[in-house]
Every structure is written in C-alpha cells, then in structure tokens.
Amino acid sequence: MLSPAEARIYDVVESSKAKAILSLLQGCNSFKRLRKLHAHIITTGLQHHPAISTKLLNFCAVSVSGCLAYAQLLFPRIHNPQTQDWNSIIRGFSQSPFPLRAIFYYNDMLSEARETPDTYTFSFVLRACERVKAERKCREVHGSIVRTGYERDFVVCTNLIKGYAGNGLIETARKLFDEMPERDLVAWNSMISCYSQAGLHHEALKTWEVMRNENVDVDGFTIVGLLSSCAHVGALNIGVQMHRLACEKGLLKNTYVGNALIDMYAKCGNLDDALFVFNSMQKRDVYTWNSMIVGYGVHGCGDEAIQFFRQMQMTRIQPNAITFLGLLCGCSHQGLVEKGVEYFNFMTSKYNIKPGIKHYGCLVDLFGRAGKLEKALEVIRTCPSQKDPVLWRTLLGSCKIHKNDKIGEIAMNNLIQLGASIAGDCVLLASIYVGANNADGVARMRKMIKSQGIRTTPGWSWIEIGNQVHKFVVDDKSHPDTNEIYLKLRETTHLISLIGYAEEDSRFSCAGCSGTSSYHSEKLAIAYGLARTSAGTCLRIVKNLRVCRDCHTFTTLVSKAFNREIIVRDRVRFHHFKDGLCSCKDYW
C-alpha cells in the first residue's frame, strides 16, 4: 500500500507518461508507428487511460493513415466509451465503403443509453443514411434531433437536408431549408448541391437568385455547384456571370473552380473560352485535361482532342478512363477509325486501364459510323459485356446512318431478348426500314409499338434567352409567349422553304415525337430565339434526344437564311450550324 506522498509521486509520474504518449500520438503519421506506440501504451499500463484510448481510436477510425478494422478491435476495449469515442467509430464507417455499420454503431450507442448524441453524432449518421439510402432511418434520426433540441443547429440541419435529398426527398429537404431560422453559406451551398445532384438544375439556379436577393455571399463551393447546373442546361450567360464573380472573389486560382469553368464553357458550346480558362490556369490536374479532351471529343474535334492528349503525356499527370472516353468519342465523331482503335488498345497496353462498357460502346460507334458494321458486330460479340443493351442500341443507331436493315434486325432482336427494347429502338428500326423501302418492316414496328404499349421518351429542348432558360416540348402550348413563337415559326418555315426546305415525315425519324407534328421542340426553341434576340446573336440549344433529320435540315437552312450561328447539343454530340453547314458534315 502506497503512502499518500508515494501515491502523489506515482500520479505525477503516470500523468507525465500520459502527456508524453499523447504528444507522440498527436505527431503520429503512419499506422506502423501507431502500432508501436500502442504496444508501448500496453506495456506501460495506460491502455485504459481515457484520453489515450480516445486518441488511439480517433486515429485508426478517421485518419487517412489509420485502419478501420483496427479501430473495430480497439472500440470494445474502451471502458465506458464517451460520446466522442462513438463519434469516431460512427464517422469512420460513415465515410468508408461500409456506411451501414455506422448506423449499427449509432443504434448501439442509443441502446446503451449512457451517452447522448451530439451535433457530430447526428451529422455522421445522417451522412451514412444518405449513402445507404436509408429513408426510414433518416426520418427516425430526425425525430431524435427534435427530441434532443438540435433542430436549430446549423450543422445538423444542413446534414439533415443532405440526408433527405440523398434519399430522393427533395421537397422535404427544401421544406427543412426554408424553415431554418437562419441559414449560413454552407446551408445554401448544400441546397444548391442537392438540386444539382438530383438533376434539378433550374431549381439550383433559382436558389442562387434567392441568394442574390438576400445578399448572401458566395464561395468556391457555390460557384462550382452553380457552374455544374449551368453546364447541364446550357446556361452560358449565367455561367459567364459565375466566371465574373469568381474573378471578383479571387477564386480563379482554385483548381476546382477552373475545372468547373472549362466544363461549363465546353458543354455550353464555347470551346474558345474553355481554352482561355485552361491556358490561364496555374495548376492543372487530370480533371482539367479531361474537361478539354472530352469537350473537344463531343464537339467532333478528334484531332484537337488527340493534340491535347499528347500535351498531357508530356506532363506527369496520368490519364484515366475518362481521358480515353474523350479520345474515343472524338475519333468516332471525326471518323478517325485507326486512331480510335490505337487508343483503345493503348489504354490497356500502356496505362493498364481496363476498358469499361462505355469504352466498348465508343468502339462500336467508331466502327458503326464508319460503315464497318460487321466489325462493330464483332466487337459486341467479343465484349465481356455483350448483354448490355447500350452496345446493341449503339449498333442500331449506326445501322440507321447506313440504312442496313439486316444488321439492324440483329441488334433489335438482341434488345428484345434482353428485355430492353424501348420505343426509341422501334422508331430507329422503322426509320431504317423507311430508308430501305421496306414497308412490311415499318408496319411491324408500328404494330409492335401499339401492341406492347411502348411509350416514347418525351423530347424537350432548352434555350437560354438573357439569364433565363426556357424549356419546350413537342407541340408545346404552355409558354406565355406561345402566339409569338408559333407566328415566328411559321414565318421562318416559309422563308427557308424558298431556299429548298421541305418538311420530312417525322413519324419514324424522331424518337420523342408523335404523329407528323411540325412543331418539334428544337424548332420552337429556335423560333423563340429568333424572335427574342438581336440579329447575329448565336443561339444555343440543349436537347435530351438526338436531332432528327428534319430538324437538322431545318436548323441548317435557318443558319443560312438568318445568318445565325446555332449550336445544338443533343444526346450524343454538338452540332455547330453556320452559313448553311453543320460541323457534323451530316454524319451523326
């Protein structure tokens, strides 16, 4: 039995040892070193020291140099784990490949009823709910948040918004956002991000309008999120405002902002400004290069994409799977078959990148567009993913270009066998039959669409006028300026008919159109653009489907008759119409 004096000396020594170990743990930067420290801790008998066990657990669970499996071994050995111990293990699993385990640990924490959750506990478990799509658990956690009085906590509310949005409950997320007594910038950024990730890009841009009206400042996260939405809807004018704002805030040195600007300009059809941003960036990563290579690829500029790839090779930045998608896309749209095959093989032989389904799809498209349909068929049959409908649908599209009904039927039969045929496939094959003067084939496709009740994907087009994006569908009468739009469209159709336009029957040329409508969505968008912009202004259209042949001819002649450049981004590529010509050279 130690005397009081000896006990005090012992406590001082132990306290000194603990401080020394905590200092070593604070500077630890490798798991190997941590294991040595852990062994030392055990030999000195300090493994149950609360601060030391907490520090050990936190390093293993959260640090990039840690080991979550080791954290799992440590956690049961902690006597009476405190809230911060639970937070470490829950946080570790919430950001791991096994987020469901974070929810299990949260449940264990509540069942033991010794420690209560705090701001961090709720934030980490909500992140796990978002990742595993656990809607019911998200609602249950929401109830706990209200009961424990955390419903007004900025951090918790922001993560709750993300949790609901991640489970597809955007309206619930927005309701929570609107009910927040005060909203900081992180909350606004989260709402914009939620809309953007859900594909609700118009709502993301509207949220920014509200931010501006409430004089809320922006940061790099705000601008990156908004630029992503601008890129998706083709809102170049708003994107330019974001660029100006980034410049005013001194954010152009931020690589993420630079990459988002390049992506936005490329997807809005402005490669010159994308190149300007690229050249002005002081630091570039693989995403910077990919944005340019993919941008040139989808614009049909294969040579420029290859040139950028060669420049990239001279840097220390390694290409990835996206890099080669951009290259293959550019080669396909420009008809560079040999180069495309070379790069497809190159990605495996030099960079050890395994081709994915999209790479095989590009290879099928490469051969198909070039008229090498047998070769394209061979690629599918030797592909590890030959049962993927995307490959057969790509081949079917190529058969339409070259009016090959035989291979088109092979592609269609495979889609039917896979149970993946859609109305667009029937329309494609019907249009092939039309080109091959096969009336029986057209009748079969028409019967198939009716008998199986196959519904077409509705076609829509977006056009930006000023700072507002307008959406049109086939035969749209919902726009407030409908009378003006249809009047302008009739005038335009009459004018271009004088230089050779004759409307084609679109029943089997456009997957998103019904009947023989003259009023396809991009025609309405172009008419509105002509009516509401000054002479010489470039019109930019974004479509969700491929441009049909009639609309392609229509747009080509409008560009000539009105001396306008018209840039159309369809589901597959960009079309730059100018002086009666298209950049695709009628090959799409």
Would you mind describing this structure in some detail?
- The protein is globular, with a radius of gyration of 30 Å.
- It has helices spanning 4-26, 31-43, 50-62, 68-74, 83-94, 100-112, 119-132, 135-147, 154-166, 170-179, 185-197, 201-213, 220-233, 236-248, 255-267, 271-280, 286-298, 302-313, 321-334, 337-349, 357-369, 373-382, 389-402, 405-417, 423-435, 439-451, 482-497, 521-532, 549-561, and strands spanning 460-465, 468-473, 539-543, 566-569, 574-578, 581-582.
- The chain has 29 helices and six strands.
- Helix 9 (154-166) runs antiparallel to helix 10 (170-179), helix 14 (236-248) runs antiparallel to helix 15 and helix 27 (482-497) packs across helix 29 (549-561).
- Mean pLDDT is 88; it is low at 9-13.
- The N and C termini lie far apart (91 Å).
- It has a six-stranded mixed β-sheet with strand order 2-1-3-4-5-6, with helices on both faces.
- Strand 3 (539-543), helix 29 and strand 4 form a beta-alpha-beta unit.
- It has 588 residues and is mostly helical.
- It is 64% helix and 5% strand.
Topology, pairings included?
Blueprint: H1 4-26, H2 31-43, H3 50-62, H4 68-74, H5 83-94, H6 100-112, H7 119-132, H8 135-147, H9 154-166, H10 170-179, H11 185-197, H12 201-213, H13 220-233, H14 236-248, H15 255-267, H16 271-280, H17 286-298, H18 302-313, H19 321-334, H20 337-349, H21 357-369, H22 373-382, H23 389-402, H24 405-417, H25 423-435, H26 439-451, E1 460-465, E2 468-473, H27 482-497, H28 521-532, E3 539-543, H29 549-561, E4 566-569, E5 574-578, E6 581-582
Helix pairs in contact: 1-3, 3-4, 3-5, 5-6, 5-7, 6-7, 7-8, 7-9, 8-9, 9-10, 9-11, 10-11, 11-12, 11-13, 12-13, 13-14, 13-15, 14-15, 15-16, 15-17, 16-17, 17-18, 17-19, 18-19, 19-20, 19-21, 20-21, 21-22, 21-23, 22-23, 23-24, 23-25, 24-25, 25-26, 27-28, 27-29
